[in-house]
């Protein structure tokens, strides 16, 4: 699949000398959902702002649909929809007028059928004559998405689209994003809710201190860097891990009622069989066994800590 966004050694340095982006290179494939993850101040919003023409990079190049973001700004920007973090809407304007006006900003002719389709897709049509001030926070965020989609962009940037939205509305937004992908829109998502990235993204990009640490298929990343934890529930609790089991680096849990064993899923041998035999030899009776996979959040935290070391 070809790249619709290409970033080549893009940098941004401010007048005070702060380098927000450091030689960022990244290819975003057409039709994918890419989650751009990083701590506060990592460079996520700066990268999006550069690609959307809000800020000018100081070095490097980037193209959207083959159009340079600097020399071909208008053509590149016409292909982009942007949903910013901040809810900046005219409170006394009607929903439908707000969306139609945004379409006009891109020089598009009036298309009532398209605007209605976008609003229906976002479950906003029944609110189309409501004023913005009458909407909930979640509905206002949907209006931001409608504004970003009304000129039919091929690339959609979602900068913290579910910030401050309750869990139910957040899951509704996930469904909206999946629907947009199915319609052929390429989506770049930044989020602090890592379960959001884990649920929706095809690939993960991690940025920290203005540098891209990795870009990888989500499943491959979790398989490569993830580890599993085996929780062994004991019939009788123990006060400490027996010295004879020291080689397994077990952890005590639940006031001694369970032992935790961490192992690498990519290894040829997990050591579980030997561990269970060692437990039996030690006279520890097992009540139950449960395994769990490392989450994307645990992998992300580990990457950022490693980069900061």
UniProtKB/TrEMBL annotation:
InterPro entries: AAA+_ATPase, ABC_transporter-like_ATP-bd, ABC_transporter-like_CS, ABC_transporter_ATP-binding, P-loop_NTPase. This is Daunorubicin/doxorubicin resistance ATP-binding protein DrrA. It is an enzyme of class 3 (hydrolase). Residues 5-234 form the ABC transporter domain. The keyword Transport applies. It holds the Pfam family ABC_tran. Gene3D superfamilies: P-loop containing nucleotide triphosphate hydrolases. Coiled coil: none annotated. The keyword Hydrolase applies. One of its GO terms (molecular function) is ATP binding. Its EC number is 3.6.3.-. The gene is drrA_1. Keywords: ATP-binding, Hydrolase, Nucleotide-binding, Transport.
């Amino acid at each position: 699949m070809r790249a619709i966004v290409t970033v080549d050694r893009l940098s941004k340095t401010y007048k005070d000398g702060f380098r927000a982006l450091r030689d960022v290179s990244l290819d975003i494939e057409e039709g994918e959902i890419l989650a751009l993850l990083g701590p506060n101040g990592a460079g996520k919003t700066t990268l999006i702002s550069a690609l959307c023409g809000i800020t000018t990079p100081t070095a490097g190049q980037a193209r959207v649909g083959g159009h340079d973001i600097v020399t071909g700004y208008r053509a590149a920007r016409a292909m982009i929809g942007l949903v910013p973090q901040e809810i900046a809407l005219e409170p006394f304007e009607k929903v439908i007028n707000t969306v139609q006006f945004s379409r006009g900003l891109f020089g598009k002719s009036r298309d009532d059928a398209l605007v209605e389709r976008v609003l229906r897709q976002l479950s906003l049509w029944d609110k189309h004559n409501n004023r913005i001030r009458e909407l909930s926070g979640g509905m206002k965020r949907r209006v931001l998405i409608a504004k970003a989609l009304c000129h039919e962009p091929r690339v959609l940037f979602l900068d913290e689209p579910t910030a401050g939205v309750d869990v139910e509305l957040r899951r509704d937004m996930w469904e909206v994003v999946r629907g947009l992908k199915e319609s052929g829109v390429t989506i770049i998502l930044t989020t602090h809710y890592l379960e959001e990235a884990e649920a929706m993204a095809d690939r993960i990009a991690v940025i920290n201190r203005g540098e891209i640490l990795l870009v990888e298929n989500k499943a491959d990343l979790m398989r490569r860097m993830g580890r599993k934890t085996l929780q062994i529930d004991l019939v009788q609790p123990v006060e400490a891990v027996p010295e004879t089991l020291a080689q397994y680096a077990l952890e005590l849990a639940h006031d001694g009622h369970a032992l935790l064993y961490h192992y690498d899923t990519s290894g040829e041998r997990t050591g579980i069989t030997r561990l269970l035999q060692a437990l039996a030899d030690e006279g520890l009776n097992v009540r139950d066994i449960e395994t769990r996979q490392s989450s994307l959040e645990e992998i992300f935290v580990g990457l950022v800590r490693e980069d900061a070391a």
